Structure prediction request, 226 residues.
Amino acid sequence: MDSSIDRERSSMDIAIIGAGRIGGNIARQLAAGGHRLVLSYSRDLAALEARAAEMGATAAAPDDAVAGAEVVVIAVPWSVLPDALGAIGSLDGRIVIDTTNQFGAGPMPAEGQTAAAFNAGRMPGARYAKAFNTLTSAFQVETAHREPRVVQWLCGDDQAAKDVVAGLIRDAGYAPVDLGGTAGCAVMEAPRRNGAVYGEEYRLAEALAVVDAVRDGRPIPPTPAY
Ligand SMILES: NC(=O)c1ccc[n+]([C@@H]2O[C@H](COP(=O)([O-])OP(=O)(O)OC[C@H]3O[C@@H](n4cnc5c(N)ncnc54)[C@H](OP(=O)(O)O)[C@@H]3O)[C@@H](O)[C@H]2O)c1
Prediction:
């Protein structure tokens, strides 16, 4: 069997940096799916430990959490990213799932640069992917495992890492759809606007039509209504 497929299906060690609304839901879904979760990076360690215990996870300091993880989910406010990345230390060789959106203070992408490309650049050595960022946390909680599956978009420049991330998105109860590399993923980034998928519910058939349009450099089809 292809080793990447095998790996995609096995139970993984996953660190959540910022187990709030977005990171907390991802952690709960993946813990329920049989993965080993460690929660990290909080202003209240006792509360974090309690949250971890509720879902059968553990809590650890950021550098320890990342050192023991194959996959690192980054789910902190944009303005906090520089501090969180400093606390984590090296991400070398780790598959990173970046859930952040560029709202609030802090360093910003250059004109025309996607937030994904910008963030990948400040995570040297990481096998970077972006996902779980287009839908509100409440909607993600409400729709996990719902049929038909809700799409979680992903992008990244490391195909093997994206295969793993796609498997985790499935395990979390959504349908993964790959939009391609970090340079061309603007349609899945904030803000919500015409001609973008950010902020919108998609199901598989309509999402695949978006992928075709992005790949061909065409405007995406009108936003679906379900
Ligand atoms: N909320 C949404 O609907 C949504 C949707 C898509 C994407 N996103 C993106 O996902 C990322 C996380 O958003 P979220 O809504 O999940 O945030 P959140 O609920 O506020 O969670 C942030 C997490 O970061 C931790 N943290 C540690 N130090 C912090 C500090 N100095 N300031 C703030 N938080 C700190 C918090 O832990 P303690 O509170 O225990 O300290 C908390 O676990 C953001 O980049 C956001 O743009 C959010």
In short: The two ends are 38 Å apart (CA to CA). The longest helix spans residues 159-171. The domain at 3-216 is CATH 3.40.50.720 (Rossmann fold).
